[in-house]
Structure formats: structure tokens, C-alpha cells
């Protein structure tokens, strides 16, 4: 399968170079498994709850297979797609389906790493929901596997390259342009707070002492848990409210962290670097249920900081503050005539923002396994500090905590058998 997938990539490259000579090649001419440049890319979606069903009809792709451990979700998905779509109960069967070009992973985060790794090894291209992985160690393994097998990987948070960025109300490339000019000075402090336009969604908290319930007949609860530790079924533990439990996600930070932090990493120029210190101000966390936090502060080796203001105490703070100037919510600045000055500078370098084109031409997507790993690590560093409720020091080069055995155990967390990397 890997050899066949490599051959398909080689064909795509050659056919695009010679596109002037022919533009439509029927699939039967190429043989099974080959992709004609004029064809839609085929997609299989793993996890067809509300998130997965929202991603069926992206331009340039056709959903040909679906997978879920909840038969009710499968029925809703079939209805949304008009029926006749191949169904799978086990994600490995969908990944091995030869008709699938792209594997879209829309499950809870505790499955992201295993599924992405399986897809990479099977030669499939990957579209993964955020956060990229639930642990730093899983992220490392996915990054390495994608590099080894040559897959095209997209992480599904788009703010570094598309749409207005929450409370800033401008695209991120405009913020990056301000930073790149040096008009704010260096180092910079970024404050992510409800006052700068970012909601941490503290309703994604878990419940302690959950009642033990009978799993509904339509749900394979053991398969839903997968690599996560066994816990008795409770309605609040699964589906949309799973975010409130450490075994599957990380509350509001796990849900929104990569949306908010990946663009910051991009405009600070930290796509290949991690903070060296993480400080936390929070109540002691429950061992199962994710709670709230007041503040999390990341500090880089050069003095740049990212402050996550959970309770909104940073009233009146700028979104970005430097020694020479500030940038506030709504792209308001204390730098006189900012827009005119900004127009004199070049825009940031262009990015590959069309995933279908990235797959066809084998170009790295704008948010990929490399920079996505580092922004996901930002999330997981914060969650580690929160779970341990203390300051952590991190070696950016080694990607491990400094002299902290308990913290390093959170990098590679055990999986429930038979699941393993």
C-alpha cells in the first residue's frame, strides 16, 4: 500500500507538470488507487458526531467512508450524506480502505495520536481536528511518522492564515506584519483574555463523583474509551462533554488552546521553539475532572511571554505589549499613524492554505505536523502545569521537563491494552 501511495504521489507531480498536455485522465486509465488530476479527492471521516458531520462537504473532496462507535451517529451521518456511504465500526478498517485518499480524524483527542499514526503508516494523507494530540509524546510520534512516510498533514485550526482572529477583528497576517516590523520592540508579552477577545469556555469542566450508568446499546463504550483508562460509563463522560475529563481532553484550554495559541506562536516566530518555563495560578485539580484556572504564564528563553488570563483579571491589558508600543483589542494601537507606517512594509511570506492543492502537489500545508506539534505542545505544557499545580521548567531542545520526573511522566502516558504506539 505504501509503495502504491508513493507511486500515486509521483504520478500527481508528473501529471501537474504536464497539465498543459492533458487535463482529464479517467481513473480506469490509471488503474485502481491512482488519482486523476481532474478527480475529487476521496475522504474517510472517523468520528461522525456533530464535529465530524460538519466537515463532510469541503470543496474538492468527496466523503466515501465513515466510522463511529455510536450507531446513532452513523445513521445521522448517512442521512446528511444522502445514504449509501461505506460504514466502519473500527477506524483501522476505514484507514485500510483503498478508496480513501484522506483520513479526517474528528474524534475526542485521546484518539488523535493513534489514528494519525495508523493513517501515516498506511500512506494516507491526514486532516486532524485540534488539539493535534493529547500528550507531547504522542505529538512527537505523529510528527516523526508523517516525516517518515511523506504524508500531507493538516491540523484543523485556520486562524494563522484565514478569517478574522477573534477579538482582534483582523487576519493574523496583519498582526504578524506589525510584529515583524519591530515597531512594538522586543521581547513581547501577549495576553489572551476575555478582555482581549478570547473566551476560555470554563463550562468545559468535569463533574466529580459521576453516577455509574448503563451505556446505551448504540454505543460501544469500550471502543470509545480505547487507549484511555477504564472508567465506569456516565453520560457526562462521553460525546460533547468529554472535554471536562483529563483522560480525553483538557477542558477549555484543551478545546480552544490551539485555536488561540497557534497564531501567537506564528507571529512571534516560535514555530520551532517551546517556552522554557510555565507558571500556573489555579486551584488544585481533581484527578479525573478538569477544573478552572486563574492564570497560566509561558516564558520563552528570549523573554517573550504568553499569558492566559482565565478569570479576566487582566482588565485594560493590551493584546500585545512591547517596550516600544502596544496593540489592543480591535487592532487599536498607541503607535501614532500605525496603518500608514505599516503600509510601507512587505506582507508576511505567503502560505499554502489550500489543503486539496497541498495533497495534489505534495506541498506542506500551512499548519502541519511540525508547527502544529509545537503549538499543541504549548497547550500540553499548560495542562501539565495545571495538573501538577506548580511551575515547570522545560528544555526546548530536548522537548522534556528539567529535573522533574512527575512532569516527564505526563509526556508519555500509559495506554490501556491492547492499544500502544
Separation, N- and C-terminal Cα atoms: 20 Å
Largest sheet: 9 strands, mixed
Q: Work out the helix count.
A: 14
How much helix, percentage-wise, in residues? 25-40%
Got a strand count?
15
Structural class: alpha/beta
Mean pLDDT, all residues: 92
Low-confidence stretches: 1-9, 11-38
State the order of secondary-structure elements, H for helix, E for strand. HHEHEHEHEHEHEHEHHEEEEEEHHHEEH
Rough shape?
globular
Radius of gyration: 22 Å
Strand content: 5-15%
How are the strands of the biggest sheet laid out side by side?
Answer: 13-12-11-7-10-9-8-14-15
Structure description:
A hairpin with a 3-residue loop joins strand 12 (326-328) and strand 13 (332-333). The strands form two sheets. Strands 13-12-11-7-10-9-8-14-15 form a nine-stranded mixed β-sheet. Strands 3-2-1-4-5-6 form a six-stranded parallel β-sheet, with helices on both faces. Helix 6 (112-121) runs parallel beside helix 7 (136-149), helix 7 (136-149) runs antiparallel to helix 13 and helix 10 (251-267) packs across helix 13 (369-388). The chain has helices at 2-17, 27-30, 50-53, 71-81, 91-96, 112-121, 136-149, 172-181, 221-225, 251-267, 338-342, 355-361, 369-388, 405-409; strands spanning 41-46, 61-67, 86-88, 102-105, 125-129, 153-156, 189-192, 277-281, 295-299, 305-309, 320-321, 326-328, 332-333, 392-395, 400-401. The protein is of the alpha/beta class.
Amino acid at each position: 500500500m505504501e509503495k502504491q501511495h508513493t507511486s500515486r504521489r509521483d504520478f500527481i507531480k508528473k501529471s501537474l507538470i504536464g497539465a498543459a498536455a492533458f487535463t482529464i485522465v479517467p481513473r480506469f486509465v490509471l488503474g485502481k488507487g491512482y488519482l486523476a488530476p481532474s478527480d475529487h479527492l476521496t475522504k474517510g471521516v472517523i468520528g461522525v458526531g456533530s464535529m465530524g458531520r460538519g466537515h463532510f462537504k469541503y470543496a474538492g473532496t468527496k466523503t466515501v467512508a465513515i466510522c463511529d462507535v455510536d450507531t446513532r451517529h452513523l445513521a445521522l451521518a448517512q442521512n446528511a450524506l444522502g445514504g449509501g456511504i461505506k460504514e466502519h465500526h473500527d477506524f483501522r478498517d476505514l484507514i485500510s480502505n483503498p478508496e480513501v485518499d484522506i483520513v479526517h480524524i474528528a474524534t475526542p483527542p485521546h484518539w488523535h495520536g493513534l489514528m494519525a499514526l495508523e493513517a501515516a503508516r498506511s500512506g494516507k494523507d491526514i486532516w486532524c481536528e485540534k488539539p493535534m494530540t493529547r500528550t507531547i509524546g504522542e505529538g512527537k510520534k505523529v510528527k516523526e511518522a508523517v516525516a517518515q512516510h511523506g504524508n500531507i498533514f493538516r491540523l484543523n485550526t485556520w486562524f494563522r492564515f484565514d478569517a478574522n482572529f477573534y477579538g482582534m477583528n483582523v487576519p493574523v497576517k496583519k498582526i504578524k506584519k506589525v510584529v515583524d516590523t519591530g515597531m512594538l520592540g522586543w521581547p513581547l508579552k501577549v495576553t489572551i483574555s476575555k478582555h482581549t477577545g478570547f473566551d476560555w469556555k470554563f463550562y468545559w469542566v468535569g463533574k466529580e463523583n459521576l453516577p455509574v450508568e448503563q451505556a446505551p446499546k448504540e454505543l460501544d463504550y469500550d471502543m470509545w474509551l480505547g487507549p484511555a483508562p477504564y472508567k465506569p460509563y456516565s453520560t457526562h463522560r462521553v460525546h460533547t462533554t468529554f472535554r471536562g475529563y483529563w483522560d480525553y481532553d483538557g477542558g477549555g484550554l484543551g478545546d480552544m488552546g490551539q485555536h488561540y495559541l497557534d497564531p501567537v506562536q506564528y507571529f512571534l516566530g516560535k514555530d520551532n521553539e517551546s517556552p522554557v518555563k510555565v507558571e500556573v495560578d489555579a486551584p488544585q485539580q481533581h484527578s479525573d475532572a478538569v477544573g478552572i484556572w486563574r492564570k497560566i504564564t509561558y516564558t520563552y528563553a528570549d523573554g517573550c511571554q504568553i499569558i492566559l488570563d482565565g478569570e479576566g483579571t487582566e482588565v485594560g491589558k493590551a493584546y500585545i505589549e512591547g517596550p516600544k508600543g502596544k496593540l489592543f483589542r480591535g487592532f487599536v494601537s498607541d503607535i501614532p499613524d500605525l496603518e500608514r507606517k505599516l503600509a510601507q512594509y512587505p506582507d508576511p511570506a505567503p502560505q499554502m492554505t489550500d489543503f486539496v492543492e497541498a495533497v495534489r502537489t505534495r506541498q506542506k500545508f500551512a499548519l502541519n505536523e511540525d508547527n502544529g506539534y509545537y503549538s499543541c505542545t504549548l497547550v500540553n505544557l499548560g495542562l501539565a502545569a495545571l495538573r501538577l499545580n506548580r511551575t515547570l521548567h522545560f528544555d526546548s531542545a530536548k522537548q522534556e521537563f528539567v529535573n522533574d520526573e512527575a512532569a516527564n511522566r505526563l509526556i508519555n502516558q500509559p495506554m490501556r491494552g491492547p492499544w500502544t504506539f
